[in-house]
Amino acid sequence: MKKLKMFLLGFAILAVFSQFCCGVFSGRIKKLEKLKLGMSQAQVSQTLGSPNIIKSARKEASGKTTEAWTYLFKNPGCEKAKAYLFRFENNKLISWALEQPRLKRANKIKKTKNKLKT
């Protein structure tokens, strides 16, 4: 009986913790709803914080500049990390999208590296 009570207590604590994590994650995702096409890079940074990765930045001969930023939304308690790719042209947001397949590949590479270390 005592083991059952301990198990139920542990399960209840885990359930509460999971709900807290999901709430934090959904709060981060809700920031995406504030974004609008045409926003400047500074406005996107102000809304989401600094990007995790700046994938590319270039200036063409015509003077047009392009950049690609990636933001990682991590939530170990509820979901795997989600990567969103943001594209800018001449300092204006032109698109953003979920970048899940590449992240899966990165996670596999990371797991492989960890196995090699052991």
Furnish the topology, listing elements before pairings.
Elements: H1 2-30, H2 41-48, E1 53-59, E2 65-75, E3 79-89, E4 92-98, H3 100-117
* CATH architecture heading: 2-Layer Sandwich
Helix content: 40-55%
Please report the first level of CATH classification, the CATH class: Alpha Beta
Overall mean pLDDT: 74
Q: How is the largest sheet built, in terms of strand order?
A: 1-2-3-4
Number of DSSP-assigned strands? 4
Give the CA-CA distance, first to last residue. Answer: 41 Å
Give the assembly state of these chains.
Answer: single chain
Structural class label: alpha+beta
Word description of this protein:
Helices cover 47% and strands 31% of the residues. The chain has 118 residues and is α+β, with helices and mostly antiparallel strands. The chain has a single domain (2-117), classed as Beta-lactamase Inhibitory Protein, Chain:B, domain 1 (2-Layer Sandwich), CATH 3.30.1450. The radius of gyration is 20 Å and the shape is elongated. The model is unreliable at 14-25 (pLDDT under 50).
Short description:
The protein is an alpha+beta fold and 118 residues long. It is built from three helices and four strands; from the N terminus they run ααββββα.
Give short descriptive properties of this protein.
4 strands; elongated; single chain; four-stranded antiparallel beta sheet; alpha+beta; Beta-lactamase Inhibitory Protein, Chain:B, domain 1; 118 residues
